[in-house]
Design brief:
By secondary structure, the chain is an alpha+beta fold. The chain has 2 domains: 112 residues, Diaminopimelate Epimerase, Chain A, domain 1, CATH 3.10.310.10; 88 residues, Roll (Diaminopimelate Epimerase, Chain A, domain 1). The protein is built from 4 helices and 14 strands. Strands 1, 2, 3, 4, 5, 6, 7, 8, 9, 10, 11, 12, 13 and 14 form a 14-stranded mixed β-sheet that branches. Helix 2 crosses helix 4. It is globular, with a radius of gyration of 16 Å.
C-alpha cells in the first residue's frame, strides 16, 4: 500500500468534525491517472490529493469517481500540510497562508465544479433533509443569523460512489460567498466550520482548521 496522510479539514473549534482528506505526498509512487483514480476509489475519501512537487505545491485531486481541476478542502488541507504559500492546480495557482489556527486559500469561483445552491427558510429545514437520490450536486443552506453572516449548510454530492453527504465543501462555500458577496461563517455537516471572505478582482478566501489524523510510518 502506498503511504498517505489523513487530515481532517474545516474542523470545529474543539478540533472535532471536519472532512477527511487523503494526501499522497510522493505522487511519483502512483504516476498514472488511471492508477490514481483507482487508489482514490480504494481509499474512499471525498477527495484524495497526489503531490507531484511538494516545494512548488503542484497537486492533483481526485474523488472516488473523477479527477478535479480544483477543490476547496483538499487545497486548504494540503497547503497546511506542505506549509507552502501557493499550490498549483490544473485550474490555476491557489494562494495559501496560515493565520493562527486557520489555514486559508484564495481561489476563483469559476474554478469550482458545478453545484446547485438551494436555499431553505430555516436551519431546521436543512437539518431535517434526507439524502437525495444520485443526480445533481446539491448544497443546501439557510441563514442561522443573516446579520452576522452565519450559515447552516449540508452538501449532497449526488454521486453513486458511496458518499451520500460531504461533511465540509470548500468549493460550494466559495460559490455561495461569490453569490452573496459577503464574508460567511458556515457550519456544515455534523459540525464542521468554514470561514470565507470575498477579495478584490473576483477572488474568494476560504479558511478552516486542519488536524492531522494519520501519517505514514517513518
Amino acid at each position: 500500500m502506498t503511504d498517505y496522510d489523513v487530515l481532517r479539514v474545516f474542523c470545529a473549534p474543539n478540533g472535532g468534525y471536519g472532512n477527511e482528506l487523503g494526501v499522497v505526498r510522493n505522487g511519483a509512487a502512483i504516476p498514472q491517472r488511471s492508477e490514481r483514480q483507482e487508489f482514490a476509489a480504494k481509499l474512499g475519501f471525498s477527495e484524495t490529493v497526489f503531490v507531484d512537487d511538494p516545494e512548488r505545491g503542484i497537486i492533483d485531486i481526485y474523488t472516488p469517481s473523477t479527477r478535479l481541476p480544483f477543490a476547496g478542502h483538499p487545497c486548504v488541507g494540503t497547503a497546511w500540510l506542505l506549509d507552502v504559500e501557493e499550490l498549483v492546480t490544473p485550474a490555476g495557482p491557489v494562494g495559501a497562508r496560515l493565520d493562527g489556527e486557520f489555514s486559508w486559500i484564495e481561489a476563483r469561483p469559476e474554478w469550482a465544479p458545478p453545484r446547485t445552491l438551494r436555499q431553505y427558510a430555516t436551519a431546521a429545514e436543512v437539518d431535517a433533509l434526507p439524502v437525495p437520490p444520485p443526480g445533481e450536486w446539491i448544497y443546501a443552506w439557510a441563514w442561522q443569523d443573516e446579520a452576522a453572516g452565519r450559515v447552516r449548510a449540508r452538501g449532497f454530492p449526488g454521486r453513486d460512489d458511496g458518499i451520500d453527504e460531504d461533511e465540509a465543501t470548500g468549493a460550494a462555500a466559495l460559490l455561495l460567498t461569490d453569490r452573496l458577496g459577503r464574508a460567511l461563517n458556515i457550519t456544515q455537516g455534523a459540525g464542521s466550520q468554514l470561514l470565507t471572505a470575498p477579495q478584490p478582482y473576483g477572488w474568494v478566501e476560504i479558511g478552516g482548521r486542519v488536524v492531522l489524523e494519520r501519517e505514514p510510518e517513518r
